[in-house]
Every structure is written in structure tokens, then in C-alpha cells.
Amino acid sequence: MPRPGTGLGPWGTSRAVFWGSAAVVAVVSGFTILFPDTASRVIGAVQTNVVSGFGWYYVALVAGFVAFAIWLGAGRWGDIRLGKDDDEPEYPLMTWFSMLFATGMGIGLVFWGVAEPLSHYANPKPGVTGTPEQLAQAAMSQTYLHWGLSAWAIYVVVGLSIAYTVHRKGRPVSIRWSLEPLLGDRVRGRLGDAVDITAVVGTVFGVATSLGLGVLQITAGLDHTGIATSSTTLQVVLIIAITGVATLSVVSGLDKGLKWLSNINVSMAGVLLVAVLLLGPTLFLLREFVQSIGTYLSQAIPLMFNVSAYSGAEGEAWQAAWTTFYWGWWISWSPFVGVFIARISRGRTVREFVGGVLLVPTIVCFLWFSVLGGSALHRQLFGGGGLVGPDGEVVPENALFDLLAGLPGGTVLSIGAIILVALFFITSADSGALVVSMLSAGGDPHPPTPLRVVWAALGGVLAIALLLAGGLTALQTAAILIALPFSVVMIGMVVSTSRALHAEHTAFLRAERRQLRAQIDEQVSRQLSRQVDHRVDRRFDERLSRWRRSRERGGR
């Protein structure tokens, strides 16, 4: 619990974490708002340098995370419970899925559901050639790569490490404590502060990226339906308004606000998915879903390790705009999503956690892109087209509404999609502010209300700043850059989690062997005792028989 009157956590480090991370966010936001042109040039230079220097690193790292997650789920540590041995899961299975899914993907799914497959089809990755149908299939496989096992494996690494630390070891809800098996008591000092500051800043930037994408799509939807004209002013007003609603939700707490919003989000997303499936080319979409899974699985390893090494500057630019951006985005989101998933996963085993976080959302993401993206590709290939510009341009924020406009009841579906994006916007801002507040309150799972309000507001301000500095490009660059330092923390989490689980499993095996030895010793003792007793009884009986016979002879 916090110390009375301070709003600080019990470990006495939240002051450094809060002021350090708040200063970084405030300086970046202020500089970007005051000098947008300079900020735009800096962002462009940073993107070029980071991608050219570290694109290969992101690809190799995420592939390693996938292998690690699968190994954890299938390995000998899978039965270890995230909590006490007799703990039951805190939330029902479907509620758990809804909360982790709404938080883990949210706005991005709606924003890119139509736009990404269309973009890969209209402007294929350098080196990808073929017929239009082959390009469409390659587009779905590339989309599956970005939203499938790789993305959720990142969340498994962070979420499981924190869940084990918090629920099994009783540590505060904080990133630093997941590194305790590796760093020891140093997590209590400045090094631990630096880890938490990195996590907080990464979370705020990751959430701001999502908020920026969300407001781009909301304004596009309002413009598309004729409700309002898209403009920078409208975008800023929407960010302020929706951040205000998110602040009210985060103040109400996890069970009241976020649980309720998550269930509504997933329900509305399900309605939109089913509507597009039934109103579109249903049988084609179902066939495409099955086929695309097979194609993705057959190409998963080559896709996962592809860094466009032989595609020159064009391939490097493509890699920066897509795969490197996504890996950076997921990593920058991972402190926030990892802490949140850990918070709601008490009572589940390691195997349940990995299976639930890695496999189920991946399949749902595949279905989402197959239905929405598949509908767009079908229209472009076999229908009236019109979703790709004459120069091959796809406007991401407009793509969903262009698709829905061609379906029966398109206006109603578009309005529903706008509401869905707004709700995902609120969920992301809500859960992001809650997690950042936990981290900056020393790991307190119930951080002070003023702290939640401050972080919700700072997230909105940063989203506005990034939009003013360059829109989508600025948002993508922010995600890639912030992910770089936290990726080092994630490597430490892999090592720490492995050490902790190995130590517990080894201790369990030793205890099991001691218990087995004790049981064997007890059984042997009982057996020997029975044998001795039997021999004594037999000798006694023999002597008694001889004595009786001698008495009988003496009597005669």
C-alpha cells in the first residue's frame, strides 16, 4: 500500500520514476508543439538512422521471442501457477480474452484491417512479384506476419515475466522487479529507476501512437459519412474530448470502467466482423481464411527472418514503414500490455497464459484480417474495385469506410465503426494511464487518482504533438525509437524469467525427490519390520512347539 500522504509506493522509488518519465514526455511534447518543422526533420533523420542500423536487430529479436514463448508453453515449466498453488483465475475465460484482446490490439486492428492487405497488394514488398491473385495471397501472408505470433509473443515475454514476479513472488506491479533474478538488489536503486522510466516512457509513446491512429480514422469516418470535415483542429478536439472520457474511466478503476469497456469493444467488433462476413462474399472469405493460415504457416520462418537485405534502398524504406514499425510498436506497447495482462492473469498456469495470450488472439486477428482485408481484396480483384487509387495509393484512415460504403447498410456500419474506434481509443488511453500510474507509484496496483489523471492527460498531449509533427510518419518513428532501449530490458526479462522458473522447477524436483526418498525409506522400514516380526513369531512358534512336545513326552 502507498505510504500515507505521499502517494508513493512502498519501495520509495516512485518519485524518481514519475518525475524522470514525466520530464521526458513533457520535453518531447513541448518541443514538438513549439517547433513542428524542426521536430519533423529530426523525426525523419532518426527514422533513417535507427532503421538502417537496427532493422536487422528488431527482426532477429522478435523471432527469438516467438521461439521463447513456444518453448515456455510447451516446456516442463508449464504447470507452474501464476499465484499460490491453490489460486483460481480472477476473471472468467471469456472476460479475460476480451480484456487482453481489446488492450493488446484495439485501435490498430480497426485502422489496418482493410488498409494493410490492400497496401501490400497495391504496393508489394520489393522482390514480391506474380499475378494479381498471387500478390493478394502474399499480401495476406505479410499481414498475418505483422499481427500474428510475432506480435503476441512480445506480450508473452513481458506479461509472463511480470505475472510471475507479482503473483508468485509477491513483488509490486513494476517492470524492475521482473529483473530481480538477474540484477539482484540493484533493482531497488537507480538502475531499477532507469528500467521503470524506460517502461513508462515507452508505454506513453506507444499509447500515443495508437491514439494518433485512432483519431486519424475517426476524423476520416466523420468526413466520409458527411458528419464533419476532417481537419487538424477536429483531430485535436477529438483527442481532448476522448482523453477526457478515458480519464473518467481510469478514475473509476479496473473492474468498473475497463472491464465494462472491454466487453463492449469486443462485442461491437464481433458484430462488425459478422456483418462484413455475411454481407460480403461469405464463402470466398471462409475459404480465404483457411488458405491464408496454411500459406502463412508454410512461409512463417522465411517471413519472420526477412530483412529486405537484397532489395536496396527501396526495400529498406519498405522495411521501415512496415515490419520494423510493427516490431517497434509492439515492443513500445509491451510494458503497458504486459503489465495489464499480468494484472488480470492471477491463478492461471504458465501453459494457460502462453496458450491464451499467444494462440487465441492470433487466430482472432487472422479471422479479422481475412474478413475485412479479404473483402477488400475480393472487391479489388473480382468486383468493382475503387479501393486503390490510380497511382496505387491506399489511404489507411479511409480504407475501412470505403469498403463499408459498398455494402448494404454502409452508412450504419460506418457509424458503428466510428463508435468502435472511439471505444478502443478510450480503452487504450484508460488502460495505458492505469498501467503508467502503477509503475510511477512504486508498483501500487491501486495508484492515486490524481496520478491517473496526470498520465491520461500527458498521453493525450503527446498524441497531439506527434500528429502536429508529421502525422502517421511521426507516430511510426516514435514507436520504433522508443522500442530500442526497452528491447534491452526485454532481453533481461527473458534471462530472468528463465532463471526464476528453472530455480522453482529445480526446487520442486528436489522436494519431490526428498519426499520420494522419505516414502521409500518408510516403506522399506515397514517391510523390514514385518520381516523381523515374522521371523520372531516363527521362532517363538517353533520353540513353543518343541516345549509342548517335550512336556508331552515327559508326561508319558
UniProtKB/TrEMBL annotation:
Q: Where are the transmembrane segments?
A: 16-35, 55-74, 95-115, 144-166, 194-216, 236-254, 266-286, 324-341, 353-371, 412-441, 453-472, 478-495
The question of whether Transport is a record keyword is answered with yes
Name the InterPro entries on file.
Answer: BCCT_transptr (IPR000060)
Q: What is its main location?
A: membrane
**Highest rank taxon of the organism:** Bacteria
Write out the entry's keywords from A to Z. Cell membrane, Membrane, Transmembrane, Transmembrane helix, Transport
Cellular component, GO, one term:
plasma membrane
According to its UniProt record, where is this protein located? Cell membrane
Instruction: Extract one GO molecular function annotation from the record.
Output: transmembrane transporter activity
Q: How does this protein sit in the membrane?
A: Multi-pass membrane protein
Q: Which Pfam families match?
A: BCCT
Q: Which family does it belong to?
A: Belongs to the BCCT transporter (TC 2.A.15) family.
Its name, as the record gives it, is BCCT family transporter
Q: Which organism is it from?
A: Cellulomonas hominis
